[in-house]
Amino acid sequence: MKNKLKIIIILYCLVTSCNSMKSNISNKKCTYKQKFENLLQTIVDTPELQQYFKFQDVAKDNDLVVLINDKLVKSATIKKNGVNILFLSQSEISEKNINRFLDFQKIEIKEQIAIIKMVYKIEGIEYNAKFKLDNCEWKLLEKQLFEN
């Protein structure tokens, strides 16, 4: 009886250890670009933010515009309403007279944790969130949504 219990405990330890290793391995296979794009996609798909995403005619219908800054690059491929999100510089936004754009003031990705601060001035909101990476997908840990 004691031997069976020892075997069960050893098997349990092996299984849980393998699952933990599998999770770490799959997170390591995820490139920084994938982590970054998945994080942005997770943010723009956040249910609490959908009510604020109204679109304007200056850009194509249903486009969402993101301000390029030192935290963001144009090469990210993110979609909203089936259309690629536009990543524009401050001068492009001014030239096109676009008032509705997301400003990511903080994006930190360290290991398997991401912290963001996004401002959407036209709607008077600030969204702060903390995410944990799990199999190359971001899971929300904490969030704060402020309305002015």
What does this structure look like?
By secondary structure, the chain is of the alpha+beta class. It contains three helices and eight strands; from the N terminus they run H-H-E-E-E-E-H-E-E-E-E. It has a four-stranded antiparallel beta sheet with strand order 5-6-7-8. Strands 1-4 form a two-stranded parallel ribbon. The radius of gyration is 20 Å and the shape is elongated.
Q: Could you give a short description of this structure?
A:
This protein has 3 helices and 8 strands, in the order ααββββαββββ. Strands 5-6-7-8 form a 4-stranded antiparallel β-sheet. Strands 1-4 form a two-stranded parallel ribbon. A two-stranded antiparallel sheet has the order 2-3.
Keywords:
elongated; alpha+beta; four-stranded antiparallel sheet; about 30% strand
Overall form: elongated
Pick out the low-confidence regions: 20-25, 57-61
Mean pLDDT comes to: 81
Strand order of the largest sheet: 5-6-7-8
Rg, rounded, reads 20 Å
In terms of structural class, how would the helical and strand content be classed? alpha+beta
Total helical segments: 3
Q: Give a short account of the largest sheet.
A: 4 strands, antiparallel
Multimer state: single chain
Helix fraction bin: 25-40%
Strand content: 25-35%
H-E order: HHEEEEHEEEE
Q: Terminal Cα separation, in Å?
A: 66 Å
Give me the count of strands: 8
Topology:
Elements lengths: L1 H28 L2 H13 L20 E3 L11 E2 L2 E2 L1 E3 L1 H6 L7 E8 L2 E8 L4 E10 L2 E11 L1
Parallel strand pairs: 1-4
Antiparallel strand pairs: 2-3, 5-6, 6-7, 7-8
